[in-house]
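User: My collaborator sent over this chain with a note saying "see what the structure looks like." That's all I know about it. Can you take a look?
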Amino acid sequence: MGHRRFVALATAAAALAAAAVVIGSPVSSRPAGKAAPAAVAGVDDDVHLNEIQVVGSHNSYKKMVSDKEEALRRQFIDGAADLMQYQHEPLGTQFQSRKVRQVEIDIYLDSAGGLYSNPLLRSAAGVGPYDPAMNEPGIKVLHIQDVDYASTCLTFVDCLTQMKTWSDANPSHVPIAVLVEFKDDELDFPGFTFTSPEKFTAANIGTVDDEIRSVMDADDLITPDDVRGSHATLDEAVTTDGWPTLGASRGKFLFLMDNKGGYRTNYLSGHPNLEGRVLFTNADPGDPDAGFVERNDSSDSSIPGLVKAGYVVRTRADGDTKEARANDTGPRDAALASGAQWVSTDYEGPGLAVGFTTPYSVEIPGGTVARCNPVNAPPGCDSALLDTIYTPLAPPDWSTTTSTTTTTTTVVGSDPEAEGATPVPGEASYTG
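Assistant: Without extra context I'll predict from the sequence alone. Here is the result:
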């Protein structure tokens, strides 16, 4: 749930404030520093990264606030708090044991440090001081300032480090997409002071690239420059030559911009074709910087055509806990059938619901980590060969969750490719 939607809800229940609350020349080699994974015969040379489909998690860092804070929040906004009642396990656990291959991170600038170190809801609930890491300069990761702030990785660098640590231990994974949402909206309630976010501008928006490159090596990334190659524009590249093969993409990350509007304009400033940039922008088909296209409504009939044209697409299977509470599988199945490469959910496995129980979850049909894309996969693609890194875990016991500590355990695991692992079947009963 974004700022504007929250503001509308909270305004309707204003007491929350009172709570005080190449591809011309494709990616074909890896610079020294990260070992190339073993080739997987039958898919690495024949299947491209846009010809598969995986499950992603939405607001992948998000934790529930403490029980005391949640009770206070519900005291004033009642059912509106349902929209924030979800959380995820640490990123490495999602990769290793929930088959997640796309994550979403919300970022806030904090160039001086300390801007988000004393959340209003936390202070009002009296649950004690927050993690001292929030006092340090650097981009912070949270959902909504002062109101829904708990995270399994408090800083962008921490999130990135968790991702890289798991990837380095499991270099044969299919490429992982990281959706980045830039956040700087105000929460405006008369008589109460909420944290005023630092604004993203053309001058400082490149900070996100700097922090990514501070953790990720060049051979960890697939960038717009890599995909554009010798083409005049990224749009021309993806709609003609296409995207790198799986063999050239394993163990790597793509970073995608969730925002449009002024954020995209600022990010393109001085980089009209995304020259030197890390993120693929959320563009419209035909724009020079178009490669990634976001269509969050899974019923959008344009998605299959976009996939066939060469774009990569993210859509959502559910949102705001609504589909999960009702066990409404229609949007989920539409998302899977659409061919969108990344199908995002808050329920990337059974038993992950917080505060209610339904059978709802999202999984690749057949239970594999990834599958051959139902819209554009080439003949001979074998879903069982795409990615076999999966160690199942029992559903977590959310009743032990607390935001008073930020210590987390990240599953790293080892690369099963070295041991000739076979895919682990899932329990998906739908076909997508």
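A starting point for your reply to your collaborator: The two ends are 25 Å apart (CA to CA).
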